[in-house]
Amino acid sequence: MRKIFGSLLFGSLLIMLFITCNNLYAEDVTTVEAKNTEISDNLDLEAVASVFGEAKDLEEFEKKLNDPETQLSNLDLNEDGEVDYLRVMETSKGDTHLVTIQAVIGKDQYQDVATIDVEKKGKDETQVQVVGDVYMYGPGYIVEPVYVHPPVIFLFFWGPMYHPWHSPFYWGFYPPYYHPWRPFPRHRYRTNVNVHINVNNSYNHTSVRKSKTSIQLQKKSRRNDFGAKNPDQSFAKRNEGVKNKQALSQKREIPKNNKPKANNVKKPRANESKKTTGKQVQKDWKPASEKAGLKSKAKDGRVSVPSGKINSKPASIKSGKSVKPRSGRTKQQIGRPSQRSRPKRR
User: What is the DSSP letter of 166?
Assistant: First the structure.
């Protein structure tokens, strides 16, 4: 008896273990989602411009880009199933600061994603342009934010406490707050990132880069390790015939129902196929055949048709003689109906 009970218990444990393993495997499979194949969809530069205006310095800006709670980035260039860490590097010359965002894709391997040109114009004016890298977004894809309030980070650049920022993090060495997450499909990423864009700001799109100094600084510091190994995955190769990310977005937003549908075109009816002169026909008009028949009836005294019109008076009224009623009718004098018997018009 004990042996039977022990075997049953052991069998039930095996079944429970098998079910638990299957459930864990199923959960692990469902968490793996297909990432987006269009690289430029995986980092919204309007969101980058938004959090840049909310950071107090470049260290905090880098933290906002890699925050696992907000998940502003969806880039996985090295295709390891995890979103790449974005480091921030800065170079400056005079009143111009070039802030470069680079994806860490391997040991000593980096890819420029975007740059932020910060240039002082006059005493109280600072110009900001977020420029997408040509490999990632195509040429001339620039977001120019207009902040509703002057960003605090401007004090970092022009204040007495300024010091250049170079991210200390690299492949395999990340800040303690950071842990990578899996990339999402495009629609899920769009839903998530739109929440973190400050709608009080304006985000103008232009193809003209205003800072010539920033262009010179970028030529000296640009990293294109991923693009050099994968030239066929550049924006121009991925989207033939499309200039840049802005043109791609406009192409996607064109509604498909702009073209007229064949079902909506009204077909002419059988009686509408003939051409009309546009003139109204007289209501009491009769064809010539009917007029001839009425005239022939008028000869026997029943109906007279003076001047082509039908006379509603019977002949007996003119002659003053009474007419015998037909069978089934009472004998009475036929004449005009009284005013009371006429139907009232509505």
Answer: B
Q: In the structure encoding, which two tokens stand for residue 157, read together?
A: 């650049």
β-strand partners of 127: 119
In a domain, 319, yes or no: no
Residue 275 placed within a domain: no
Q: Is residue 185 part of a domain?
A: yes
Q: How many domains does the chain have?
A: 1
Query: Which pair of structure tokens corresponds to residue 228?
Result: 């050099």
Question: Among 147, 192, 182, 166, which residue's Cα sits nearest to residue 52?
Answer: 147
Would the pTM of this model clear 0.70, i.e. be above it?
A: no
* 273 three-state secondary structure: coil
102 residue type, one letter: Q
Asked if 63 and 183 touch (Cβ cutoff 8 Å), the reply is: no
- List average pLDDT for each run of 10 residues in the chain, which is 346 residues long: 51 58 44 60 96 96 96 95 97 95 97 97 89 96 95 92 93 95 93 93 95 95 96 92 89 60 48 46 54 51 47 45 48 47 49
* Alpha helices, DSSP H, located in the chain: 2-30, 45-52, 58-65, 134-137, 153-158, 186-194, 212-221, 225-229, 235-238, 245-253, 288-298, 315-319
